[in-house]
């Protein structure tokens, strides 16, 4: 059971103060009866709630897949920079979603946003070994020693030793390379720092996969869509096996 005004507010129908006035104007019914108290307890999944003649269809959680653009921070609020939340429509912001993990300000690609705290915890916990796959452009060729170092666990500048990671060469050029990197952690600037430890620099970084969820290439940077039921099932399948 939840407060009526909380249910309606979560769906973007207004603030609690605004909804109190809407209910006072006899614009809301619950199971065919006029709602008289904005704080009345309702079961949003079973009760028939109608506001201004429109029946609401409640859902507790929202799951979004974004192609994060460069220059936007993975946060719910920032005093200086635009956030990924700022890119959402108001009706999606009403669910108060947050980014799962984070991508650096200048990193692009797949970002999951949700208000499902349990799923967030499972996805970002290193003990669950959820793969995060990146495409990267490096300022130098990659060799077998680099691949072995990633596999053995790179030690970062602060002394932290990363879990085993997979480094795959896509293209090796005379003075640069294109690679795919698979990690299971999310330390601050981790991929960039791993290459710095090998005296190389990341010039472009894009996340292309998170667990079983792949970047939707039809999304332009800054665009997003809801994760389908099939994609959500794939995303959570690894936990159901444990």
Structure description:
The strands form 3 sheets. Strands 7, 8, 9, 10, 11, 12, 13, 14 and 15 form a 9-stranded mixed beta sheet that branches. This protein has a 4-stranded antiparallel beta sheet with strand order 3-2-5-6, with no helix packed on it. The protein is α+β, with helices and mostly antiparallel strands and 242 residues long. It has helices at 4-10, 16-24, 90-93, 117-124, 144-152, 190-196, 229-240, and strands spanning 2-3, 28-30, 33-34, 41-42, 49-51, 54-55, 63-68, 98-99, 108-114, 132-138, 166-172, 177-183, 202-210, 213-214, 224-226.
How many helical elements? 7
The first-to-last residue Cα distance is 31 Å
Q: Total number of β-strand segments?
A: 15
Strand content: 25-35%
**Percent helix range:** 10-25%
Enumerate the spans where pLDDT stays under 50 for 5 or more consecutive residues: none
**In oligomeric terms, what are we looking at?**
single chain
- Morphology call: elongated
Mean pLDDT: 93
Order of helices and strands: EHHEEEEEEHEEHEHEEHEEEH
Note the main sheet: 9 strands, mixed
Alpha-beta classification: alpha+beta
User: What's the gyration radius in Å?
Assistant: 22 Å
